[in-house]
Design goal:
Layout lengths: L8 E3 L5 E3 L11 H12 L2 H22 L5 E2 L4 E2 H19 L1 H11 L1 H6 L5 H30 L6 H13 L2 H13 L2 H18 L13 H5 L3 H12 L7 H27 L2
Antiparallel strand pairs: 1-2, 3-4
Helix pairs in contact: 1-6, 2-3, 2-6, 3-6, 3-7, 3-11, 4-8, 4-9, 6-7, 6-8, 6-12, 7-11, 8-12, 11-12
């Protein structure tokens, strides 16, 4: 493969264009590559539908079960319907982020990652491209879930609180993107799906995204506090007006991000050194 210049592109075996950069630009985030990666994710119609349809259906089911009658959740001070909406928005955003794992596994199987590593694309730039693509996809899911809740189910906490919750959840997807990248970097194609299911289901159930922890067994509380999925939902609740400080959830999510990001970059550089 020939490495393209900053103003040119080449085509890989996957049919995806490679945006070239010169060695002097190593370490910078190649904007054109990020845009192409984001577009490629948004064109995956099946993945987009799955990250939207599942949380919307669960919102309609659980919203009717927990949110009818306008009851208020005493642990958050928010209406149950809003609590359920935030859970499903977090669930959809997490699904959009973790879904990156399959794309990376496929890229590895096709040799796409090997071609990237012989370009000046740095590990940090690779990480940034996947993260931005995941955030964009997650944003679509969050907006749709909240629109269904407000327009179709008449959930109301005010526009400012919806925006605060949505932005908080959106920024909180970064650790899940890094988890997806790690799965994609380490898992073989035959084991990627089982590993994804175990990780995804564990984070969703134990993190309280399916059923509120307040009605779950008491032992789940301490477990949930160790998981980023719990804090993703908690950030959304605080953004929606629930009492509490953002300091603890932000600190925990940053810790997950730093540790996972270091491992992702290390793995990328290690693979590049083998070329």
């Amino acid at each position: 493969m020939s490495v393209a210049t900053p103003s040119s592109t080449s085509t890989t075996a996957t049919g995806s264009p490679v945006v070239g950069t010169s060695p002097s630009h190593r370490g910078r985030i190649p904007i054109r590559y990020v845009v192409l990666e984001t577009k490629r994710q948004l064109r995956n119609v099946r993945a987009i539908v799955f990250t939207i349809a599942v949380p919307v259906v669960m919102l309609l089911v659980f919203g009717a079960a927990y949110g009818s009658g306008g009851q208020v959740d005493t642990s958050t001070g928010l209406p149950w319907l809003v609590v359920t909406t935030l859970q499903m928005a977090s669930y959809g955003a997490m699904m959009a982020s973790l879904g990156q794992a399959f794309a990376i596994v496929n890229e590895r199987a096709l040799g796409w990652n090997r071609q990237l590593r012989v370009t000046p694309l740095s590990g940090s730039a690779f990480l940034a491209s996947k993260t931005i693509a995941a955030i964009t996809t997650a944003a679509v899911s969050i907006v749709v879930v909240m629109l269904v809740a407000t327009v179709g189910m008449h959930a109301s906490i005010g526009l400012g609180h919806w925006l605060g919750a949505g932005v908080g959840i959106l920024l909180g997807v970064v650790p899940f993107t890094l988890i997806a990248i790690l799965i994609g970097q380490f898992a073989k194609p035959s084991f990627a799906q089982p590993m994804f299911v175990v990780v995804f289901m564990g984070l969703a159930i134990l993190g309280g995204l399916w059923v509120p922890l307040s009605i779950m067994p008491s032992w789940m509380g301490p477990v949930a506090h160790l998981l980023p999925s719990f804090w993703l939902n908690r950030i959304g609740q605080i953004g929606a007006g629930s009492d509490g400080s953002l300091l603890e959830p932000v600190t925990v999510m940053l810790a997950w991000t730093v540790v996972l990001g270091a491992v992702v970059v290390w793995r990328y550089r290690r693979d590049a050194a083998r070329q």
